[in-house]
Amino acid sequence: MSQPIIQLTLQLLLTIAACLQSDRAGSSENAARAFHDACAQQAAVGDSLAISGRDGWLFLRAELRHIGAGPFWGEAAARGSKASSPEKADPIPAICDFQQQLEALGVDLIVMPVPCKALIYPDKLGGPANVRVDTVHQEFFRELAAKGVTVLDLAGEFIKDKARPDSPPLYCATDSHWSPYACELTARSIKEKIGSPSWLTGKPDAFEIRQETRVITGDLSAGKGSEQLEVRLVSGAGAAPLEDKSSPIVLLGDSHTLVFHAGADLHGTGAGLADQLAAELGTAIDVVGVRGSGATAARLNLVRRARTDPTYLAHKKVVLWCFAAREFTEAQGWPKIPIHRGK
């Protein structure tokens, strides 16, 4: 057995012991801290893209590094961030600035980070199965809420759903993305968050829905592993489109807005968040998704649209900003980006 494998095995055993000890003490905070420390240790061993967990589950090394970084805003921001400069490490100023710019244009912003896979399934890495370990993110969301930013805390919904005996997987076991079922669950949470404003004039029967079994090869499996997923497939009824740039709803973000929607290596079409959201709301969605950073590249794409077409944002009502939570530390930075020139 190689030295890195021995080290990783020992770290996993330490994780289990620490978490069990924390559980016995009745302290979820200690259990969370022990799990965060173990993630940091695992991320530091080796340089492979993926780290193996239990039952064939694979985890992105960068995600474990993010979990192990601890608080990532305020004075602590520069400590664990991969930002190109300390001034761009703290995500809060950029998020608040973006929210304020959109608010001035009459557009609501809902920030909805995709929870880290390991924080929803810590048991797949030897962590506690019944303790909520996303304590750092919960604190961060409270900070944003105190500054007037609307946050959709998906982790709470995911953990609640995961507790059901018949709950489908919320993440792909061999991929860095969430599952089609998680997209479906998220779409329902968004619908509840938005409510029934007068501008939402969707039709319940605008789209057709059917179930499908899909086999994917996950991006963490190095092309060697596949898994089977049950998906809710959405298609337009007649000529109804699933995407429309004139939609009042913008889905902005990274590849989590494109997976199961954009096709090719993103595991097909018709079952991603945009599709599920269109089905729930009865209306097409304007998708501004990128394969790069949901922190910066996605915002830049939105800005380009707004600058190319001065009327682009005039009829928008809500921007749903969806990106991997690991971006809080793993992005190259969180600069403020003016939507219009001269701002």
Q: How far do the termini sit from each other?
A: 59 Å
Helix content: 25-40%
Order of helices and strands: HHEEHHHEHHEHHEEEHEHEH
User: What percentage of amino acids are in beta strands?
Assistant: 5-15%
Structural domain count: 1
Q: Strand sequence of the main sheet, in spatial order?
A: 4-3-9-7-8
The biggest beta sheet is recorded as: 5 strands, parallel
Q: Give the low-pLDDT segments.
A: 1-7, 20-26
Give a description of the structure:
The protein is of the alpha/beta class and 343 residues long. It has one domain (77-330). The protein has helices spanning 3-24, 28-44, 61-68, 77-80, 91-104, 117-120, 135-146, 154-162, 180-194, 273-281, 297-308, 327-330; strands at 50-52, 58-60, 108-111, 150-151, 207-217, 226-236, 249-253, 286-289, 318-322. The strands form three sheets. It has a five-stranded parallel sheet. The protein has a two-stranded antiparallel sheet with strand order 1-2. It has a two-stranded antiparallel sheet with strand order 5-6. A hairpin with a 5-residue loop joins strand 1 and strand 2. The termini are far apart. The model is unreliable at 1-7 and 20-26 (pLDDT under 50).
At a glance:
The protein is α/β, with parallel strands linked by helices and 343 residues long. Helices cover 38% and strands 14% of the residues.
Keywords, separated by commas or semicolons:
alpha/beta; 38% helix; globular; disordered N terminus
